Structure formats: structure tokens, C-alpha cells
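Case 145 in the screening queue. Each case pairs one protein sequence with one candidate compound; here the compound is cobalt (II) ion. For every case the pipeline is the same: read the inputs, emit a complex structure as C-alpha cells, and attach any notable structural observations.

Predict complex for case 145.
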Amino acid sequence: MKLGRLNHIGVATPSIADSVAYYREVMGATSITEAFDLPEQGVKVCFVDTPGHDGTAGTQVELIEPLGPDSTLAGFLAKNPLGGQHHVCFEVPDIEAARAHFEGLGKRILGPTRIGAHGTPIFFLHPRDMMGQLTEIMETPKGAH
Ligand SMILES: CC[C@@H](C(=O)O)C(=O)SCCNC(=O)CCNC(=O)[C@H](O)C(C)(C)COP(=O)(O)OP(=O)(O)OC[C@H]1O[C@@H](n2cnc3c(N)ncnc32)[C@H](O)[C@@H]1OP(=O)(O)O
Ligand SMILES: [Co+2]
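Case 145 output:
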């Protein structure tokens, strides 16, 4: 498998509204998407754009807020009440080839491959098998380069 672009860094937050204000007012972000719910992932999500050098899309910050007490983020926010860096997400050209690659290495894959916030297939790898980082793998959107 060949490592692709760092698509986003997932940042857990107890309040997307507060985090959006922080990225605008403190970090000078000028492009932030509208928040939307992803019930199947148990999160509300929005993206902070960071500009690339040559007009290409930069890596995004993915702000994620739990949708309810059963959200997968609940345990993380109980341990980190202010929120913070939650996962890293790398693109790959072929999600099934990537899944087979990690399975072959004995890495624990957390659940089935599903459709993520960018509309392409994703899966997660257990942080204890990934040098302490919860790692999301996503298939590169069609037409992206
Ligand atoms: C917006 C949609 C989508 C996208 O398209 O981008 C998303 O990104 S959704 C993001 C949210 N979804 C997920 O995180 C799904 C995968 N996550 C999980 O399955 C679980 O969160 C988890 C990683 C298995 C942790 O579950 P939890 O119930 O919190 O278990 P523990 O508390 O027992 O943790 C086990 C172990 O792992 C350490 N840990 C937990 N979370 C993280 C983390 N974010 N980063 C690094 N390490 C983490 C935790 O400290 C425990 O360690 P040990 O005690 O040493 O075992
Ligand atoms: Co993500």
C-alpha cells in the first residue's frame, strides 16, 4: 500500500459552535463548512479549510461533536473535557486493498467499511496498533488529485 495525502485531522469538541468561533477569531480561518449530523457515526461534523500553497485544497480540520451520550466520542470527551486531537485520516486510492494490507499486518480494524463525511468509504484502525493514534483510512474522492 502507498500512503496518500493527509486528508484531515479529527478534533473532538464539546461544542462545534465554540470551536468554529475559535478557528475564525483566534486562528483566522476564512472557510468553514456548515455543520451537519452523521447519525450513523454518532457525530455532528464540520470542516475548517486550510489553504494549500498552490491553490489546491489543504488538509482540513474535522470538528466532531457527539450527537448524544452513546456517541463513540463520549469516552474521549470524558477523559478530555476540552476536546482535542482525536484521529488522523489518510487517503488511499483503493479502500479494499488498504483494508487487506492492514489486516495482513494484524492491525485491528474497528468495524465495517462505511461511508464517511466526504461521501467515500472509510474505516478506522485501533490506536493501540497504530503508535497511539486512532487512524482513519479513506478512499480518495473521485476527481481529486
Ligand atoms: C465525521 C465522520 C468520520 C469521517 O468521515 O471523518 C469520522 O471521523 S467519525 C469519528 C468518530 N468515530 C470513531 O472514532 C470510530 C472509531 N473509534 C472507536 O471505535 C472508538 O472510539 C475506540 C478508538 C475503539 C475507543 O473506544 P473507547 O470506548 O473510547 O475505548 P477505550 O476508552 O477503552 O479506549 C481503548 C484504548 O484506546 C485509547 N484511545 C481511545 N481513543 C483514542 C484516541 N482518539 N486516540 C488515541 N488513543 C485513544 C484509550 O486511551 C485506550 O487506551 P488503553 O487504556 O491504553 O488501552
Ligand atoms: Co474523520
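Case 145 observations:
- The chain has a mean pLDDT of 95.
- DSSP finds three helices and eight strands in the chain.
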